[in-house]
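Work Package 3 (structural annotation) set out to generate three-dimensional models for the target panel prioritized at the project kickoff. During this period the team completed the workflow that converts sequence records into discrete structure tokens, so that structures can be stored uniformly alongside our sequence database. As a representative example, we reproduce one entry of 278 residues exactly as it appears in the project archive.
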Amino acid sequence: MTTIAELVSERYGEQVNYGQGIAAEGTIKQILTRGSQRHFTDKPVLDDLLKTLLACAQSAPTKSDLQQYSIIVVRDAEKLEALGAMNSGMDWPTKAPVFMAFCADMRRIQKLAPIRGHDHQNNNLDTFMNGVIDASLAMLSFMYAAEGTGLGCCPISQIRNQMDRACEIMELPAGVFPIAGFAVGWPEYETPRVSMRLPQDVVVHYDRYDDDKLEERAEEYSARRHETSPIGPGKQRHTDKYGVLEFCPWTENVVRQLSLPERPGFAAFLKKHGYDLV
């Protein structure tokens, strides 16, 4: 019997004192053991299953029942090839049996407003955030439902590297933009090793925010993570500027990554694409 304590301990890389003697089953076991899947067989995902999973996505909670998101299932071969060509060496997601984009969507209600004789007065930062959250929750619901059937999934942030081009390929009008691409298929290999996460006492706070022990706990985490999943030269960030380390702590790598601007044109794109962000 695999216990909850064993799976949680594996997720954190350190022993926990809860869940001992309790069998890990069902959804809890599925989530605690999940990992992103990047290698798929050629076996198709049948339409009936896909539509069922999309219904699961739409069953996610949504702010005020506004449902400000859309899902683009990309099937056209030319569009898939064009999306795959956007990022060098990153065409594998578009070669998955199913490739989708989860999108924030302000356009739908903007279009409905004049039909019902009303103005749309909420082209603002809050609507942007609500759409992103709605799309994220839908994506998460799809992912857990899909993985529950044995499918493998992987969200893809690289689709935001060239937002203009991605929107052009998928013909997304103003007010609609992808928060993430999403690859789905039957796994070619077993689920990858569980990715170790920061200690719960670093991420979860009770009554007030407290990061007094952040440095100590984050460095302990980096050391534990290095034992099972060392960050090799190929995964170290910005080695042209910072060089290659024999031991690259997680803390070093994430700070390196965010030491240079990422997607600096994102706000300008959103404003050009219909979002006022006020």
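The chain has a mean pLDDT of 96.
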